[in-house]
Amino acid sequence: MSASSNDTDCGHRVDRREFVRRATLLAGGVLASLTGAATAHATARAVITEITPKALEDASAVRRYRVPTANGAFIDAGNELLIVRWNRQLFAFALACPHRGATLEWRTTPGEVYCPKHKARFDAGGAHRSGRASRDLDRYSLRLEGAELVVDLANRLRADRDASAWAAAVITL
After folding, report:
1. pTM exceeds 0.85, yes or no
2. Which three-class secondary structure string do you get for the chain?
3. How does pLDDT run along the chain (173 residues), one tens digit per residue?
4. Smallest Cα–Cα separation from 94: which of 76, 112, 117?
5. What ranges do the domains of the chain cover?
6. For labelling alongside 105, which of 20, 95, 135, 136 has CA 20 to 30 A away?
7. Which CATH number does the domain 13-172 belong to among 2.102.10.10, 3.30.420.10, 1.10.3720.10, 3.40.640.10?
8. What is the phi/psi pair of residue 20, to 5°?
9. What is the largest CA-CA distance in the chain?
């Protein structure tokens, strides 16, 4: 007896884009959980786990992410975005150092953003603490919509130009 396409179809078809999105989210979750276990003994740098935009692939400047469930930093390299969850607060930063644009790193101990090019250190909220830097990290405005973190990449905030908007660009959980 020959099998028709209906005989082999289980009714759970997923298109390629959705499959890749789900696989990436799963891999990110696994890496994040492994990172959480590994960072208990980390003394220098934590692994930065890439998370991907949930569903927006258009030209919009708004990106949606799952809310991180543990302290740490997460990167969306395609949008040059660093998301930090630290002590029940969420921040979204430009991934480039404000001094010369070097790619920033996250250090779990002591919970800081670090510029390896000029040895600049920033606290988890983006304030400059030491080393060479011209100013605090640039933040993006963000908000919660249900269980999603929504970041507006068109609204990049500088502490030296609009201190009140920069200070307000935080979510307390």
Report:
1. no
2. CCCCHHHHCCCCCCCHHHHHHHHHHHHHHHHHHHHHHHHHHCCCCCCCEECCCCCCCCCCCEEEEECCCCCEEEEEHHHCEEEEEECCEEEEEECECCCCCCECEEECCCCEEEECCCCEEEECCCCEEECCCCCCCCEEEEEEECCEEEEEEEEEECCCCCHHHHHHCCEEC
3. 444 444 445 555 667 776 666 666 666 555 555 544 343 333 334 444 444 444 444 447 999 999 988 999 999 989 999 999 999 999 999 999 998 889 999 998 889 999 999 899 999 999 999 988 779 999 999 999 988 999 999 999 999 999 999 999 999 99
4. 76
5. 13-172
6. 20
7. 2.102.10.10
8. -65, -40
9. 75
Amino acid at 37: A
